Amino acid sequence: MKFMHLSDLHIGKRVNEFSMIEDQTYILQKILELADEEKPDAVLIAGDVYDKNLPTIEGVNLLDDFLSDLHKRKIPVFMISGNHDSAERLNFASRILRNNEVYIAGTYQGEIARYTLNDGHGPVNIYLLPFVKPAIASVYHEGIESYHDAVKAILAAAKVNKAERNILVAHQFVTAGDISPECCDSENISVGGLDNVDVSVFDDFEYVALGHLHGPQRIGRDTVRYAGSPLKYSFSEAKQKKSVTMVTIDTKGEIKQEYIPLIPLRDMRQLKGPIDELLNPKNYHNGNTKDYIHATLTDEEEIYDAIGRIRSIYPNVMRIEFDNSKTKPNETAKLVAEDVIRKDPLCLFEEFFKNQNNVSMSDEQNEIMKKLLFE
């Protein structure tokens, strides 16, 4: 039995005030094309379906289209809520959608949802655990003090049949002992607190389809895996390789995984160097100039309308900053009170200028200040 594992769609997200709807529409269409090629028996969506708990109209319509297209292909969908979703809103019409093989677990109400598919090797049980906090779990279970306690108690109550093949879809921050997964700045993680769940609680499952972290990665063992987001949502993800995870389960214990790359409509890239080099055709003619760009300019001199010049080539530049001697902090620069008293205003300004810019005033600038102070 073959499964397509997705997570962290973040439909409706804005990155540096750029709407990602067009990019998300494009990548979801690519995922549908992959579904046509791979013909999975089901799609697992491990939370953070929307980016906000009150999704945009465009976002709701896009998810509606995506689920409808999967239904037309007769591919069952198993979906849970993440910490970005409104669990109750995602749960809307879930009982009706269940009749059309779209299975949604938006809220935890004391019992983990379980659905069963069958193939030539027998049943495969799919457990859906939406993002859960200790406060929610403590309503139904005793002794809950942490996220680990919450997930452990919920799975223990599920009484998983270890003799059968079992899959869990979950959305938590999972660690393996002292080893933490790779995180990026687009995720809301409290590392070192009580937010982590140890991978040991998943021992009864053949495969654990995780959501929450945007970088595709294993944690603890190969069959406990974050699919990662289908798109880059911050420049800290610029070097990540996005993919779709395909999981094939044969007899119990026989699992194969394949990671199929996703090529976005626009990539997210970081560029650094003098502005003339960044705008030199030989340095960009082979790249997609429509990509989302974070440009770091290393020029020492002032640049008039730097953002406008960059946008003339890269219209989707998201961020621009400078890295030169003027921007480096001058930690040794101090003005002692007695020096301030005995120095004239021009001398003080010269020191201030040098402390701010790491260079001395030019003769022309010095003359201008003399005239201003005289006036």
TrEMBL record:
Domain Nuclease SbcCD subunit D C-terminal: 264-356
Pfam families: Metallophos, SbcD_C
Positions of the Calcineurin-like phosphoesterase domain: 1-216
GO MF annotations in UniProt: 3'-5' exonuclease activity; endonuclease activity
Keywords: DNA recombination, DNA replication, Endonuclease, Exonuclease, Hydrolase, Nuclease
Superkingdom classification of source: Bacteria
Record keyword Coiled coil present: no
Gene Ontology biological process: DNA recombination; DNA replication
InterPro entries (alphabetical): Calcineurin-like_PHP, DNA_Repair-Maintenance_Comp, Metallo-depent_PP-like, Mre11_N, SbcD, SbcD_C
Assembly behavior: Heterodimer of SbcC and SbcD.
Family: Belongs to the SbcD family.
PANTHER family in UniProt: COMPONENT OF ATP-DEPENDENT DSDNA EXONUCLEASE, NUCLEASE SBCCD SUBUNIT D
Function (record text): SbcCD cleaves DNA hairpin structures. These structures can inhibit DNA replication and are intermediates in certain DNA recombination reactions. The complex acts as a 3'->5' double strand exonuclease that can open hairpins. It also has a 5' single-strand endonuclease activity.
Protein name: Nuclease SbcCD subunit D
Organism name: Lachnoclostridium phytofermentans (strain ATCC 700394 / DSM 18823 / ISDg) (Clostridium phytofermentans)
